[in-house]
Design a protein that fits this description.
It is globular, with a radius of gyration of 18 Å. It contains 8 helices and 9 strands. It has a single domain (5-238), classed as NAD(P)-binding Rossmann-like Domain (Rossmann fold, 3-Layer(aba) Sandwich). By secondary structure, the protein is α/β, with parallel strands linked by helices. It has helices at residues 14-25, 37-41, 58-65, 92-113, 139-158, 192-204, 214-224, 228-238; strands at residues 5-8, 29-34, 49-52, 71-76, 117-126, 165-171, 174-175, 190-191, 209-212. The chain has a 7-stranded parallel beta sheet with strand order 3-2-1-4-5-6-9, sandwiched between helices.
Length: 240
C-alpha cells in the first residue's frame, strides 16, 4: 500500500539508500536519516523529510524524534563493521564502538521512535546472516548483530498486544561501502537494490524473518548443524 510513513536509518548509502528508492517508487513518504550532510544532499528530492544525526548521540536522536510524525514502518538499518585483527591484543575500543553503534544505539532509537509507530505498524531490524555461524575476526560485529537478533525476537513478543509487527532481516553479502572493504571471498554477493527489493516485499507481507540470498543462508544453516571441527575448517579456510 502506498502513502505509508517510513523512517529509515542509515539511509544515505548501501541498503538504506536502496530502501529509500524502493519506498519512493511505491509512493510512500520516506523520512531519511543519516549522519553525512554531503550524502544526505545527494538523496532523491522526493524524500519527505531529512534527519541529520548520529545514532549514538541520544540527545540528537531525541530531538529528531520530537519533530517526526506518526510512523507506519520504522527501519533500523544503520550499522558499522570493524574486525578484531589481533585477537591476543584484543581491541576493546573497536569492540565497544561497534557494540555502541550496532546494538546500544538500537535502544536509543527504540526509546525515541517506537512510541511514534502506530497500531498495525512495523519495526524492521536489518541484522546479518553472520549470526547464523561464527566467522573469524568477527567478535565485535557478530556479537553486536547477535544482540540485535535477540532484541528483535524478544520485542516481537512484547509488541503483540500493541499490534506492531517486528521483522528481522538476515542479509548475506551485499555490495555496499562496508563490504567493499572486505578482502576475503564473499560468495553469492547481491546488489543493494536486490536486497532492498527483498526487504520491502517481506515487510509488505509482514514476515517475521527474512534471510537472503537463500543459497548462502541455507548453506550457513546447514554448516551450523555439522560437527564443529568440520565447519570450523571450512570457515577458516575461506577467511584467511
Amino acid at each position: 500500500m502506498a502513502d505509508n510513513m517510513v523512517l529509515i536509518t542509515g539511509a544515505t548509502s548501501g541498503i538504506g539508500a536502496a530502501l529509500v528508492d524502493e519506498y519512493l517508487a511505491k509512493s510512500d513518504k520516506v523520512i531519511a536519516c543519516g549522519r553525512s550532510q554531503q550524502k544526505m544532499a545527494a538523496l532523491d528530492t522526493r524524500v519527505y523529510q531529512q534527519c541529520l544525526f548520529d545514532i549514538t548521540d541520544s540527545d540528537a536522536v531525541a530531538q529528531v524524534a520530537s519533530e517526526v510524525a506518526t510512523l507506519d514502518i520504522l527501519i533500523l538499518n544503520a550499522g558499522d563493521c570493524r574486525y578484531i585483527d589481533d585477537v591476543i591484543k584484543f581491541d576493546h575500543q573497536a569492540f565497544s564502538a561497534i557494540i555502541a553503534t550496532n546494538l546500544t544505539a538500537l535502544g536509543t532509537l527504540l526509546a525515541a521512535f517506537l512510541p511514534k509507530v502506530k497500531r498495525g505498524g512495523q519495526v524492521v531490524f536489518v541484522s546479518s546472516s553472520a549470526t547464523i555461524l561464527p566467522f573469524p575476526r568477527s567478535e565485535a560485529y557478530g556479537a553486536s548483530k547477535a544482540g540485535a537478533d535477540y532484541l528483535a525476537n524478544s520485542l516481537r513478543l512484547d509488541l503483540l498486544e500493541h499490534d506492531i509487527g517486528v521483522t528481522l532481516v538476515h542479509p548475506g553479502f551485499v555490495s555496499t561501502p562496508l563490504t567493499d572493504k572486505n578482502t576475503f571471498d564473499m560468495p553469492f554477493m547481491i546488489t543493494s537494490q536486490e536486497a532492498a527489493k527483498r526487504i520491502v516485499k517481506g515487510v509488505n507481507q509482514r514476515k517475521a524473518y527474512l534471510h537472503f540470498p537463500k543459497r548462502l543462508t541455507w548453506l550457513l544453516k546447514f554448516f551450523s548443524i555439522l560437527p564443529a571441527g568440520l565447519w570450523q575448517k571450512l570457515i577458516i579456510r575461506n577467511n584467511p
